[in-house]
Design brief:
Radius of gyration: 27 Å
Strand order of the largest sheet: 14-11-17-16-18-19
Number of strands: 19
Mean pLDDT: 78
Length: 392
């Protein structure tokens, strides 16, 4: 028999012949600036200059660019706000800013707004509440908590601020009251859990908070409501409590920033862009050469613009919250608008629900009225499609 060929070995092991895998990489599609970019962006640039001039000066309350130049008449603006209020379902009181400052309103109404606090300040606030509870218990009085009312009757709309704020009405929550004892127990439990989270310097989601004591909370709406009550009691924003909602919003375009030390360039985050993080306080050093921010209601419209790299043809930042905006998206939009001083253009449906979404971005929501200062973005330009466009 002819001798059989043995496979070549190296170090006692046979070497198998394998084909080299293909390493073809699709090149990034280059999108150039549109030929008519200067003409299209002329109004955006004039509005941007007006915003920056207003920010640098004091006592200037009027924009140099009127709504008429954008094709927006006052009747449609009023109709937009009225439609949003009808969808909301309940009436909101209106008070002039001058009356609030002078305290000359008929009922002497003031407003309650929270402020940014660091972790130590929030922990001290929780500890002060715990000390008050302990003193009442030691005095054999049970205990009761004084909490700002977040009911619809305590919501105030200030036209000069163009946002909903929280009035100064307060309520008590007594442990000795049979109807309020369970809510009081939930409040003290939430205070305990929040203090532990702040002590560890970590963040949790609202869902995590609920699952820590399902038997007591029963439903997540119970713990969510108490969470907002605690924020108003302490006087801090909800994000200062280190409890966040799951991320929902997306951003793509000409903006970069550092997120907890990591550099993020939103032009290099793939077709879908970057998820807006719930930890807005960890974002710093925001940089952008965008001419405007495009706020899109629908995710489908956002994905179309992201895939076509619309932000390269017309330098901009594209943001969506996939419908009803979440807290993180609203806070992110408010922050980059105030830091970059560029106009915001909104593309929403021309129906009451689309206009309600726009009003939440601009004037805030009733659930978070105590923190409307950091969650609202005033003077957003509504691109349409508006009903008046059908007559042109």
């Amino acid at each position: 028999m002819p001798p059989t060929k043995k496979p070549r070995v190296s170090g006692g092991a046979a070497v198998a012949r394998t084909s080299k895998p293909s390493t073809t990489v699709t090149k990034k599609r280059v999108v150039k600036l549109a030929d008519d970019a200067d003409e299209v962006l002329a109004k955006c640039r004039s509005l941007r200059d007006a915003l920056r001039m207003k920010a640098s000066s004091t006592g200037d309350n009027d924009d140099d660019v009127s709504d008429d130049e954008w094709g927006i008449d006052e009747e449609e603006a009023d109709a937009k706000k009225e439609a949003a209020r009808k969808v909301d379902g309940s009436k909101t009181q209106q008070i002039r800013l001058s009356d609030l400052k002078s305290g000359t309103t008929a009922d002497g109404k003031a407003i309650v707004e929270v402020v940014e606090m660091n972790t130590t300040q929030v922990m001290e606030g929780i500890e002060n509440v715990a000390v008050k509870i302990a003193k009442q218990v030691l005095a054999k009085q049970g205990f009761q908590l004084e909490i700002p009312s977040r009911s619809a009757s305590n919501q105030v709309y200030v036209p000069e601020l163009d946002r909903i704020v929280l009035g100064d009405k307060t309520g008590t929550r007594s442990f000795l009251n049979v109807k309020e004892s369970r809510k009081s127990a939930i409040t003290t439990r939430v205070l305990q859990l929040l203090h532990a989270v702040l002590l560890k310097r970590i963040h949790i989601t609202k869902r995590d908070l609920f699952y820590t004591d399902v038997k007591l909370f029963v439903d997540q709406s119970e713990s969510d409501g108490v969470l907002d009550d605690v924020a108003t009691m302490i006087g801090c924003t909800r994000s200062n409590l280190h409890v966040v909602a799951s991320d929902k919003g997306l951003v793509v375009g000409r903006i970069s920033f550092f997120e907890d030390g990591d550099f993020i360039d939103c032009t290099k985050m793939g077709v879908g862009g970057k998820a807006i993080p719930p930890y807005i306080d960890k974002i710093e050093n925001i940089q952008s050469d965008a001419e405007f921010i495009l706020l899109v209601e629908k995710e489908a419209a956002y994905m179309r613009m992201a895939e076509d790299r619309f932000y390269q043809r017309y330098p901009c930042i594209v943001i969506t919250a996939k419908g009803q905006p979440d807290v993180a998206t609203r806070m992110f939009l408010s922050r980059i608008t105030s830091e970059l001083q560029i106009p915001v253009l909104a593309l929403v449906d021309s129906d009451p629900y689309g206009l309600k979404i726009l009003s939440v971005y601009m004037s805030g929501s009733k659930n978070m009225s105590y923190d409307s200062a950091s969650l609202t973005t005033p003077d957003i330009k509504w691109l349409g499609l508006r009903p008046s466009d059908l007559n042109r």
